[in-house]
């Protein structure tokens, strides 16, 4: 069994336990449930912003501990102030050291927030709304095409946007009418190999009406410009900033480099 299958197997157990402890009706009473979500699409296409989805990520299966000394509130405020189009906050505990509390702490910011987790059940989408997320991630490698379309439609019925993540050609069939935003993960989540070139090749096969996000392994502005030229509209970046002592300062200096190249 590969690491992704293990994560998903554990996730299903975790969700079943949470469902029993806090039924949906209870989540709907959470403070954030009735707020109007912000739009990732609008933010990504705003020329005043960077197109970067800046991620708060304490650790990962591929890298172990990245940074466990910083506060989610301070880092995400810095990301937002420096021009992030969106925040991505890991809410998975066992593999990434994240939590729902992290996302709620990031909600002090007035830009869209992606709930970064392994979503396998409608319950997690209700949770996402209840903790203040605006966007959810659906990972093709964890779901069938039918599950993607069902979960995406459910998220949209709650006013949330959906980022569908694919990695290889074999996942192109997961794209559907309910998934207008498609992310191409440069990292193979089963082997952790990162390959920017294969993502660039893959986008030629994605319908041209989709908003495209490049994800993972982006560590310099040159890569952003290459990927922009190839047709990507947004860039999800975690470790490049989180590995630094002050991720917000690292992001601000990255943004300066982006501006100089414009
Ligand atoms: O990052 C991992 O090791 C990982 C392993 C298994 C499943 C998912 C994983 N990462 C999730 C992500 O998609 C990244 O956190 C995100 O794209 C940012 O990547 P990076 O800029 O390389 O930190």
Automatic annotation (TrEMBL):
Gene3D superfamilies: Aldolase class I. InterPro entries: Aldolase_TIM (IPR013785), Indole-3-glycerol_P_synth (IPR045186), Indole-3-glycerol_P_synth_dom (IPR013798), Indole-3-GlycerolPSynthase_CS (IPR001468), RibuloseP-bd_barrel (IPR011060). CDD domains: IGPS. GO terms for biological process: L-tryptophan biosynthetic process. PROSITE patterns: IGPS. It is an enzyme of class 4 (lyase). Residues 4-249 form the Indole-3-glycerol phosphate synthase domain. Pathway: Amino-acid biosynthesis; L-tryptophan biosynthesis; L-tryptophan from chorismate: step 4/5. It catalyses: 1-(2-carboxyphenylamino)-1-deoxy-D-ribulose 5-phosphate + H(+) = (1S,2R)-1-C-(indol-3-yl)glycerol 3-phosphate + CO2 + H2O. The keyword Repeat does not apply. Its EC number is 4.1.1.48. Pfam families: IGPS. GO terms for molecular function: indole-3-glycerol-phosphate synthase activity; phosphoribosylanthranilate isomerase activity. Keywords: Amino-acid biosynthesis, Aromatic amino acid biosynthesis, Decarboxylase, Lyase, Tryptophan biosynthesis. NCBIfam families: PRK00278.2-4. This is indole-3-glycerol-phosphate synthase. It comes from Puia dinghuensis. The gene is trpC.
